[in-house]
Amino acid sequence: MIVLFHKNDKCIRAFDLDSELDIIIDEYDMIKCFFDLASKFENRFVIWCHLDMEPFVLFKNISNLCSHKLVMASYNNQEENYLPQEIGYVDSSPFANPKKEVTYPTWMMSSCVGVIHSEVLRAFNAKMFKDESFDYLLNSIAKRGQSKGLFCYSAPQFLNGNAPQLNINKASVFEVFKFVKQHFKTRWTAILLFNFFIYENKLFVLPFLKSLLTSKKCLHLELAHIENSTQAKSNELNYDVIIPTIGRRSYLYDVLKDLANQTLIPKNVIIIEQNPIIGSVSDLDYLQNETWPFVVKHQFIQQTGACNSRNLALKDVVSEYVFMADDDIRCKPYVIENAFLTMVTYNFKAATLSCLQEGQKDTVKNTMQWFTFGSGCSMVNSAIAKKLEFDTAFEFGFGEDSDFGMQLRNHGCDIAYLPFSQLLHLKAPVGGFRNINKQAWTEDTLQPKPSPTVMLYNLKHQTLQQQKGYKTLLFIKFFNRQPIKNPFSYFKQMIARWNRSVFWAEQLMNKTQ
């Protein structure tokens, strides 16, 4: 590893961590020096570190996180980041709200201490950043690279507990607008301006106008050629499958047949069958009448709900990994083994597989950090999954998958998306879990908007700025889908419906606490 110490955007010194020899530097501008070192050392990780933090950096922990080349990570021990929380007005993803206590997926980088592989850095054009600060450069690389397969983290293990808090650089309002213009669609700068005005009574006209004159600096970024040297062996892994099911006898049978034909067969398949009708019995006779190459653990219950069912199933998981499956998917024989090969190669502890309907095409072209989670198409390390539960406040609504994904991230477990491991989602017209029970707000004269379970997710996991940004977009997008055309009447009604949604979300939250 190459270590580069800096202060005030100037390179102070560099040395080779492996040989413990100093490296002669020809350029003291931090960004130029950064790219120069990546050019000279073609297959090395490059660490950057603020000079004042040198005594507190744990270089071994940095090395441990770099399990593959497509890793970029940094850390500052302050609550604030270079980009302010107002970035949430335009970015509602989990990546814009990093948790500082755990290794957390985020593109929000810090110049305090961090690491990137030289091959990744060489994929960027240094000339694009000649007028930027080092912090702006780091955030830009992470934001652009994440969608191309760069795995970016905030990593508290990089510093020991005695590290002081630096007065970190913070982006000016001009830099915030500039960043949004260069890394989001142009319309987001207008949305940012609007949100600043209506929620903070701040009218940043000049930063907005100046951002419009800023070039996006288009970059044809390609990281797929950067290969990992890890030798993956999926046959050393074992996994269980959990499947909640209701009213889909024939569809579940096809799922089991697909699992039986896998090149990597599960150890146990745990089925939670529900039927709310009093006196009913299981109709899954084929579980006993046929021979399966795995152990079938079957529970028949009369309480409906996918969250409750998955929680029951997780208690029976004993293998190293768990595959969370829907009861109406189809799976080709090599899919699960291929998914495990990718997970082992990149040391993923959780991954969501591509799960599309017939005729749909995946727009994602590379393995990448995922902003959500699929509770019916994901693999998770069992030791982590068994510490968590699906929140039953989301039962019969929407959002339990995303909420479980956030629980994983908050426990330091990143989620990858595997577009090349493809499942077919049949979306069976019978059975399933939606609309089994009426929600408490179904009879409300004024229907809440958005759904209270969506609001619940936002209240649990988003910053105040992200919630307000979501509110703005909801109000704008929904206008043409409803009959009220007077904007003042519409706004008044939507405020009332929003408040009703908050009320019911808080009721759900209190009910499960």
Plain-language structure description:
The protein is α/β, with parallel strands linked by helices and 513 residues long. The protein folds into three domains: 2-212; 234-425, Alpha-Beta Complex (Spore Coat Polysaccharide Biosynthesis Protein SpsA, Chain A); 452-512, no CATH class. Helices cover 34% and strands 18% of the residues. It has helices at residues 30-40, 59-65, 118-122, 134-146, 173-183, 187-200, 205-212, 249-260, 286-289, 306-315, 335-346, 382-385, 400-410, 452-461, 464-478, 487-512, and strands spanning 2-7, 10-16, 21-23, 45-50, 71-75, 104-105, 113-117, 151-154, 239-245, 268-274, 295-301, 321-325, 329-331, 350-356, 368-369, 377-381, 416-425. A hairpin with a 4-residue loop joins strand 2 (10-16) and strand 3 (21-23). Helix 5 runs antiparallel to helix 6 (187-200) and helix 14 packs across helix 16 (487-512). The model has no long low-confidence stretch (mean pLDDT 93).
Based on the model shown, name its key terms.
34% helix, 16 helices, 3 domains, nine-stranded mixed beta sheet, eight-stranded mixed beta sheet, 513 residues, alpha/beta, Spore Coat Polysaccharide Biosynthesis Protein SpsA, Chain A
Strand content: 15-25%
Q: Give the overall shape.
A: globular
* Number of continuous helical runs: 16
Q: Which oligomerization state do the chains in this entry correspond to?
A: single chain
Q: Helical percent range?
A: 25-40%
Distance between the termini: 47 Å
Number of domains: 3
> Mean of the pLDDT scores?
93
Strand tally, please? 17
Structural class: alpha/beta
Low-confidence stretches: none
The major sheet is characterized as: 9 strands, mixed
Radius of gyration: 25 Å
